[in-house]
Amino acid sequence: MGLAVRVLPSLPATTKAPRLDTWGLILLSPALAGLFYGVSMIGSRTAYPILQIIIPVIVGILCLILYIVHALTTPRSPLIDIRLLHIRSFSAAILIQLMFGFSLFGSLLVLPLFYQDVRHQTALMAGILLAPQGIGALAARWVVGHNIEEFGIRNWSVIGVVAVALGTLPFSLVGGHAPEWLLATSLIIRGAGLSTVVIAVSVGVYRDVPAHAVASASSMSEIIQQLGGAVGSEVLALILAESLHHISPFQAVRAYEHTLWWSIVFLSAILIPSLWLPRQSPRVSD
Q1: Contact 129, 183 (CB under 8 A)
Q2: Nearest 10 degrees: Cα torsion 249, 53, 91, 271
Q3: In this structure, are residues 21 and 219 in contact, taking their beta carbons and an 8 Å threshold?
Q4: With b meaning 16 or more CB within 10 Å and e meaning fewer, what string describes 215-242?
Q5: Taking Cα atoms as reference points, which of 22, 27, 25 lies closest to residue 66?
Q6: Is 151 exposed, middle or buried (0-12, 13-18, 19+ CB in 10 A)?
Q7: 64-68, 74-78, 131-135, 277-281 — which is least confidently predicted?
Q8: Does this model's pTM top 0.70?
Q9: pLDDT at position 47
Q10: Is there a contact between 80 and 28 (Cβ–Cβ < 8 Å)?
């Protein structure tokens, strides 16, 4: 709050705020709640799956369809303007965020468990051993942030996806027997790739969006990323649980390697929408 008072400019509103889209709020809120709740209960072994999984998901989908119809037909400003998906750079970035959240959050769930179950580390030591990922992310932010316009968001996105895949590969091949320096180096590469994709996609989200639609674009971006993360975490957790169920505790490394291979497969799919991003970013002077 202190930095906000000191640093952010005090500017008057340039446009009048639109009226609250009440119907949009009524439809979109239960849509998201139903989808998130239903997805989160998929792996819970619930005794009443039709009540705790199927019905919430169906209600969520129906409410989402009704919201889409409402957003496309209302003469007022919708709560979230899905017509922004007509913008190619925005729709590509949103799809990448969905798929990236799917792969990112799922693997962030699996890697700490990998260190604890396979390499027999404590929770605290697992967190310390994962720290190189943050170092790589910070280094990439400096490099990519200073060269995003010159090299282009499409190129950076592809490089980031490849880096994350390469950084995950040692865990999926020889993770149980790999030396610590190899895993630490892989985590640095992986962290750098994660940060690169996030920066490139963030630029892609707002690149061609009109100024008056930035708030709507931001909301849609956040929702899509959280939805992808929720689904991805649940899917990889189910793959891991199913793999562990069919092997002995002494062979847990195989289950983790199998799960992380699926993470790489999901990640590789991001290369397709990455090619839809613009080759170059507009310069600040434009």
Answers
A1: yes
A2: 20
A3: no
A4: ebbeebbebbbbbbbbbbbbbbbebbee
A5: 27
A6: middle
A7: 277-281
A8: yes
A9: 66
A10: yes
Tokens standing for 32?
Answer: 């998201």
Residues in the chain: 286
CB atoms within 10 A of CB 177: 9
Residue 59 — very low, low, confident or very high, per pLDDT cuts 50/70/90? Answer: very high
pLDDT recorded at residue 140: 92
The predicted structure's pLDDT at residue 285 = 38
Contact partners, residue 175, CB within 8 Å, separation at least 6:
114, 118, 119, 183, 253, 256, 257, 260
Task: Give the CA distances from residue 235 to residues 153, 222, 242, 245, 262, in Å, rounded to whole numbers and listed in that order.
Answer: 29, 20, 11, 15, 10
Residue with tokens 């991001």: 270
N- to C-terminal Cα distance for the chain?
32
Amino acid at 230: A
Structure tokens at 152: 């282009």
Q: How many C-beta atoms surround the C-beta of residue 69 within 10 A? A: 11
